[in-house]
Amino acid sequence: MNNTAASPVSTATSSSGRSTGKSVSFAVELQSMMFSLGDARRPLHETAVLVEDVVHTQLINLLQQAAEISQLRGARVISAEDLLFLMRKDKKKLRRLLKYMFFRDYKSKIVKGIDEDDLLEDKLSGSNNTNKRQKIAQDFLNSIDQTGELLAMLEDDEIDEVKQERMERAERQTRMMDSAQYAEFCESRQLSFSKKASKFRDWLDCSSMEIKPNVVAMEILAYLAYETVAQLVDLALLVRQDMVTKAGDPFSHAISATFIQYHNSAEGSCMKSSPDSPENTPPHTPTAPSSGSQHSGKTTSGSLGNGSVGQDSAKTKQRKRKKPKD
């Protein structure tokens, strides 16, 4: 299945996943997307290129896996079922994707001019024509779900903490904006890969693939690309938050104290490197007072230096005293 000769993805791509014959870039759009997700107003172009490369590599790998699964089941195109099968183990992202597919159905009905009353009737009656994407997901999950936990996500109304955090961050971001900045922010929030479908298809170089994704699969890929950008921005903001030292943080104080203690001990070990220094010599052992304490004290003090220098000087004085007179 991993044989390159039988791979359904064309080999005309580079090692980083980029097409060698095209120069399609989403760097400018990514700068606006990153700004709408909480990044700076003007992100660096180098940062946008790096994010683009990461997202492009992830999608190319996902497309290759989906093409292999589609080839195994004998299909001619990559469909939504192949992508749902790859995401079946990530429950949170799968729940988010199912909600996105439901709202895509809802948006397509609004664009076609269907009233809200008709939408409610279609939802209650379970019409297959009006809930195309939702029916695809429901039928496929029903075929692979043995425990019922995947189908339960279709009716799960649990609050998505990640999405909630992003909305709160966007609200805090717009508090200090003027009218022009807010208009630019709203325009940036409307950008997505799905709004430039032809450019997105060329960016992924789908024309060179033997098994190509269909329309619904391209919508899911565009959604996953935007989610990858959002996740990268979330992680970058977490790193930036961890780098800021908070006042009164007990852990930062403990870390700094540990560093100072280690730094001082390292300097102390360098100062005590000489074995002959006075700091490395052990103190003399105190003895009990005796009648010859003065004599023993002199002998001890003389022997604390280098060998028997004190004893040699005492013997020289005695020889001088015993020298006969002329």
Topology (elements, then pairings):
Elements: H1 27-36, H2 45-72, E1 77-78, H3 80-86, H4 91-111, H5 116-125, H6 132-144, H7 149-152, H8 161-173, H9 179-189, H10 197-203, E2 212-213, H11 215-243, H12 250-271, H13 293-303, H14 309-322
Parallel strand pairs: 1-2
Helix pairs in contact: 1-2, 1-9, 2-11, 4-6
Region (Disordered): 1-20, 267-326
GO biological process, one term: regulation of transcription by RNA polymerase II
Biased composition (Polar residues): 267-279, 287-303
Features:
326 residues; globular; transcription; single chain; TFIID_TAF13; 2 strands; transcription regulation; mainly alpha; disordered N terminus; two-stranded parallel ribbon
Tell me what the structure shows.
This protein is mostly helical and 326 residues long. It has a domain at 26-246. The protein has 14 helices and two strands. It has helices at residues 27-36, 45-72, 80-86, 91-111, 116-125, 132-144, 149-152, 161-173, 179-189, 197-203, 215-243, 250-271, 293-303, 309-322; strands at 77-78, 212-213. The protein has a two-stranded parallel ribbon. Helix 1 (27-36) crosses helix 2 (45-72), helix 2 (45-72) packs across helix 11 (215-243) and helix 4 (91-111) runs antiparallel to helix 6 (132-144). The longest helix is centred in the last third of the chain and has 29 residues, at 215-243. The termini are far apart. Mean pLDDT is 74; it is low at 1-21 and 291-308. It is found in: Nucleus. Keywords: Activator, Nucleus, Transcription, Transcription regulation. Residues 267-279, 287-303 have a biased composition (Polar residues).
